[in-house]
Amino acid sequence: MTDLTDADIDADADRVSAAPDRTSAQPLAGRRALVTGGASGIGAAVVRALAARGAHVVVADIDTAGATALAEEVGGSIWIVNLMDTAALTDAALASALAGVDILVNNAGIQRINPIQDFKPADFHNILTLMLEAPFLLIRAVLPQMYAANFGRIINVSSVHGIRASPYKSAYVAAKHGLEGLSKVTALEGGAHGVTSNCVAPGYVRTPLVEKQITDQALVHGIPASEVLSTIMLTESAIKRLVEPAEVGSLVAWLASDDAAMVTGASYTMDGGWSAR
Ligand code: NAD
């Protein structure tokens, strides 16, 4: 730890006021981003939002075809990886995948719905690995280069279930609560090095993951799938519709921008008011 002086604080203010033009249509020009789970759903929308604002984006996903097609669409590149296989996430593999990355979006995730007594321990372990340990390993690997550049943006795709629990989602809720905590610790450690870390916490977003959840919820609650949105998922929302993936993409792109330089350690819900109740 070093002692902070007023001169250091002035120098930091000068650095910020010399930041790129905030009115630019390409506020992320020159940035390199990596989005895990970037081939589908929210991740794909984040990839498109970052690329549209000028960033080069690495689509990191287990889905080769989806990642390749999206990378071609946005002029980005790919990292084909199984983020549940942490043995493959060696220092060398991470260093190669993350080279030059100054915006890291931890987004890959899956969902399993089951009461705790029926929840398979292997499923619990795999969800925690993909959605908490892998983000930790990527953050751990990318921070040194962000510190060296005195710039970095870590954006973790959490969920309203990182803030409030729901029954039958033990692993998911545990992983997202953990991710919220990890994100805050990253913010506290990174603040002196130009690195911000934040969560976005969406409610139900129109993606393949939610379409599967609607079917699973119907089974576990014994109701028709056509009634799941109105009787379970959206009952507590102020705005009665699903979030669109592009809406989450815009929020992530803003958090990645220079406009959000003073936003860190935060978690932004985007849930139509669900968590306000
Ligand atoms: P999705 O199923 O559409 O996309 C998930 C992506 O992750 C896919 O491209 C998939 O191939 C990839 N992936 C899955 N396992 C992987 C692995 N082992 N290694 C690498 N990639 C893997 O899901 P989504 O709805 O877009 O969800 C994305 C994130 O948003 C998740 O973390 C999820 O928890 C979170 N989230 C989703 C919602 C929602 O309503 N859809 C709400 C809140 C939070």
From TrEMBL:
InterPro entries: NAD(P)-bd_dom_sf, Sc_DH/Rdtase_CS, SDR, SDR_fam
Region called Disordered, residue ranges: 1-24
Alphabetical list of Gene3D superfamilies matching this protein: NAD(P)-binding Rossmann-like Domain
Keywords linked to the UniProt accession: Oxidoreductase
Compositional bias per record (Acidic residues), positions renumbered to this chain: 1-11
One BP term from GO: monocarboxylic acid metabolic process
GO molecular function: oxidoreductase activity
Pfam families per UniProt: adh_short_C2
Source organism superkingdom: Bacteria
NCBIfam families: PRK12429.1 (NF009093)
Family of the protein in this entry: Belongs to the short-chain dehydrogenases/reductases (SDR) family.
Protein name, entry field: SDR family oxidoreductase
